[in-house]
Amino acid sequence: MSTKITVIPGDGIGPDIVKSALEILEKAGCDFEYDYVDAGLTALEKTGELLPQATLDTIAKNAVTLKGPLTTPVGEGFTSINVSLRQHFGLYANLRPVKSFKGTQARYDNVDIITVRENTEGMYSGLGQKVSDDGSEAEAVSKITREGAERIVRFAYELAQREGRKKVTAVHKANILKSTSGLFLKVAREVAEEYPDIESAEMIVDAACMRLVMNPEDFDVIVTTNLFGDILSDLCAGLVGGLGMAPGANIGKDCAIFEAVHGSAPDIAGKNLANPSSVILASIQMLEYLGLPEKAEKITKALADVIESGDRTTRDLGGSHGTTDFTQAVIERL
């Protein structure tokens, strides 16, 4: 019996790059069935809702989702659909791996870092957000729980053990945010004692940013709170060529959503220009989650060979080709 996957094509360039990933999965011999649903602006145009109940029901039913980018307005408008999905399904762990690929225009060639980000608490929880009537003041509440901190730190150490990683670095701002970041650091220290086989480190977030830029090889697994994790994981993406080379997994107890982490890029939507690597890499994460490591490795090798050879690569990778040509180059290697 084939596995059923929920697919959210997304907004902007989403449908094109998700189509690319699905074609590659098929060529790699993945026997999946797909339920297509909408969210974000596409859903709003079709149904009048940003996150229809039918979409939520399908995600819950199939338990595994592959998602393209969704549009989130800056500074105004509706709440991020990505955040809403994470909170609705309790997807507490955001897993953002970055790895150097030969052939990109990245500054480094030896990066291999996984950022494990707490996905439901902290400044992204949406608690207490309000603006005064005259627009002169705004405030929000950051909330960290012992349960949430312990759950994400333990996830990071279990991941490190499972993948043969040697080091976990807890990133915080406990010198200033003594309550919230202080609790996170206290819990991280307690959990670290249970994993003596893994090297444990801790670092203030601003120092971590500097160290990542100067010596990224010092990092292996990073575990941190929601806001810091969002910023650090994008910084890490910049070390390997940008957000086009960075996938993301949102994992909870009963459900997982795998996604391209970049935006919907409406300026190039429908122009066959987008690099589909982020969502291809997200589909590789999905295969690993589903216990299909051989197929995941097969696609990874094909993708790496296309990028290293420069065969039909997209503009951000130094080439002059589009999404469909890039996809075909990967498929030929499969």
From TrEMBL:
<comment type="similarity">
    <text>Belongs to the isocitrate and isopropylmalate dehydrogenases family.</text>
</comment>
<dbReference type="GO" id="GO:0004449">
    <property type="term" value="F:isocitrate dehydrogenase (NAD+) activity"/>
</dbReference>
<dbReference type="GO" id="GO:0006099">
    <property type="term" value="P:tricarboxylic acid cycle"/>
</dbReference>
<protein>
    <submittedName>
        <fullName>Isocitrate dehydrogenase</fullName>
        <ecNumber>1.1.1.41</ecNumber>
    </submittedName>
</protein>
<dbReference type="GO" id="GO:0006102">
    <property type="term" value="P:isocitrate metabolic process"/>
</dbReference>
<dbReference type="InterPro" id="IPR024084">
    <property type="entry name" value="IsoPropMal-DH-like_dom"/>
</dbReference>
<feature type="domain" description="Isopropylmalate dehydrogenase-like">
    <location>
        <begin position="4"/>
        <end position="330"/>
    </location>
</feature>
<keyword id="KW-0560">Oxidoreductase</keyword>
<dbReference type="Pfam" id="PF00180">
    <property type="entry name" value="Iso_dh"/>
</dbReference>
<dbReference type="GO" id="GO:0000287">
    <property type="term" value="F:magnesium ion binding"/>
</dbReference>
<dbReference type="InterPro" id="IPR019818">
    <property type="entry name" value="IsoCit/isopropylmalate_DH_CS"/>
</dbReference>
<dbReference type="GO" id="GO:0051287">
    <property type="term" value="F:NAD binding"/>
</dbReference>
